[in-house]
Amino acid sequence: MKNLKGYTLMEVLVVMIIMIILLSVGMYSYMSFAETTKFNQDVANIQNDILVLQRAAMFFERDSDEYWLYGLGIDFSGVQDGNGTYTFFKWCSEFPDFGDIKTRSEYPNYDPEYPLSLNNGNIPTFVSSGSCKAGNTNKLLSLSEYGNGKFNLEEDVSISGGQYLLFEAVSGKAFIYDTNGQ
To answer: Is residue 159's pLDDT more than 70?
Structure first.
């Protein structure tokens, strides 16, 4: 009988088990790296969108027939709804020009002679479309020319605290409002 060289079944199984373990660790590392990369990209995108919108709020030119803007902002309600999107908006005042106490006060749409209320100092909580002309005042209007932002989310995100981020016109000061507009 010839003595042939070869591997036993036990040796083949040990090598296969080692290969499976190495591949599992490699796949886990790759998946973690891919998820971290997506997260970092989302952070970079939102940082860029915030900076662009803040600058746009400071230098935004409205049409001559449009009313004064309190500012430009981001509505994060789509992120909380689970689709991962956020919308850009402009907040139209009910005044044709800068000068009323509500346009000059420390907070947008706020008259310091009255307490904070739904109509004094709070942001509307619905984004619609249109322009800041008579009849379309004290509303949030979509900035469709800016598009929408999107996160690469695979799970629902709960936002506690702020849903609206507003940058005041001219100054660029940031204000955060909750889901009730307060």
So the answer is: no
